[in-house]
Amino acid sequence: MPKIGDIQLPEFPLLLAPMEDVSDPPFRALCKEQGADVVYTEFISSEGLIRDAAKSVMKLDIYEKERPVGIQIFGANLDSMLRSVEIVEKSNPDIIDINFGCPVKKVVSKNAGAGILRDIPLMVKLTEAMVKHTNLPVTVKTRLGWDNDSIKIVEVAERLQDVGIKAIAIHGRTRVQMYKGNADWKPIAQVKNNPRMHIPVFGNGDVDSPEMAVKMRDEYGLDGAMIGRASIGNPWFFNQVKHYIKTGEHMALPTMTERVSAARRHLQMSIDWKGEKLGVFETRRHYTNYFKGIPNFKEYRMKMVTSDHAADVFAAFDEVEQKFGDHVFAR
Ligand SMILES: Cc1cc2nc3c(=O)[nH]c(=O)nc-3n(C[C@H](O)[C@H](O)[C@H](O)COP(=O)(O)O)c2cc1C
């Protein structure tokens, strides 16, 4: 069974992917309750952290109940990354993850995120220095390569392993692809099949059904699946995959009562974490996802997203629960 450093994981673990504005502590806690084996924070800027930018620092908050949790940082400057490691350690995460996969322009233009895939020696050098600078296990999340002509992930993964990372998660797309096309898991399987690899190799990209997770395990032989979009507003996805792996059957979809309960708890945890104003505001973006697939839902959603008062949002939740109760809608 795979391990990240000393962290023992179950067979074929499911990891919640780092997602900006999505993987906040309340969402991570809900995913953990619903079967995620490891959760990651959204990416946090090393430059923001060392300047004590409030927004970056807040992203370091973690709950005990979500462990094991990895804090993900990005950057391309060695000194800033090392100083961030020290700052991140104070939050006491279980894992430090390096983001070498973010494709957005403002990140790659500074050689950070997937930008570093154009400079593998720098990628290896940064990683090695970070591994040496902490006792926590360091993991890497990356893409196949910069573009189709520069896919060197087998070599890259081996070099990162050799400088001490404890696991690698690979999104089966290149930087140039962004999110287009289908994720290609074949190069990830090649990483896994490299006889020199001994750390866990997690696959990422397009796991959107239990069947896809099983495919990743059985046809591609990967050590676990990292799941992003399929979990948004749908923390049950992890247990759905686990149930399918165990029984070969699909788990019942959540009822509306369960969906309302998740949204309610998400909002309450957000309020407890950052106060009513910010909690109400920042949880708004999750409702479309929690309530996906419900016909004529606009009227209720508007009530949830137009008031600044938690009481109004909770009242809208109650109304939805009373109206739809045990109904089950496909997403
Ligand atoms: C809204 C959103 C935000 C994301 N933010 C991050 C991030 O902060 N760090 C990161 O490594 N990847 C980020 N990603 C990429 C995901 O972690 C993942 O690699 C990608 O979505 C593919 O997996 P999926 O098909 O399961 O969603 C983000 C993706 C989405 C959709």
Short description:
By secondary structure, this protein is of the alpha/beta class. The protein is built from 13 helices and ten strands. Bound molecules: flavin mononucleotide (FMN).
Total number of helices? 13
Secondary structure: number of strands: 10
Strand content range: 5-15%
Order of helices and strands: EEEHEHHEHEHHEHEHEHEHHHH
- The first-level CATH class name of the largest domain: Alpha Beta
Q: How does the overall form come out from the CA principal axes?
A: globular
Number of domains: 2
Largest β sheet strand count, sense and barrel closure:
8 strands, parallel, barrel
Q: For the terminal residues, how far apart are their CA atoms?
A: 33 Å
Output the structural class: alpha/beta
Domain DUS-like FMN-binding: 15-312
Keywords: Flavoprotein, FMN, NADP, Nucleotide-binding, Oxidoreductase, RNA-binding, tRNA processing, tRNA-binding
Family: Belongs to the dus family.
Enzyme class: oxidoreductase
How are the elements arranged and paired?
Elements: E1 3-4, E2 7-8, E3 14-16, H1 25-33, E4 38-45, H2 46-50, H3 54-58, E5 69-74, H4 78-90, E6 95-100, H5 105-108, H6 120-133, E7 138-143, H7 153-162, E8 167-171, H8 186-193, E9 201-204, H9 210-218, E10 224-227, H10 237-247, H11 256-290, H12 298-306, H13 310-324
Parallel strand pairs: 3-4, 3-10, 4-5, 5-6, 6-7, 7-8, 8-9, 9-10
Antiparallel strand pairs: 1-2
Helix pairs in contact: 1-11, 4-6, 7-8, 9-10, 11-13, 12-13
Bound molecules: flavin mononucleotide (FMN).
What does this structure look like?
Helix content is about 45%, strand content about 15%. It has helices at about 25-35, 45-50, 55-60, 80-90, 105-110, 120-135, 155-160, 185-195, 210-220, 235-245, 255-290, 300-305, 310-325, and strands spanning about 5, 5-10, 15, 40-45, 70-75, 95-100, 140-145, 165-170, 200-205, 225. The strands form two sheets. The chain has an eight-stranded parallel barrel, surrounded by six helices. The longest helix has about 35 residues, at about 255-290. Bound molecules: flavin mononucleotide.
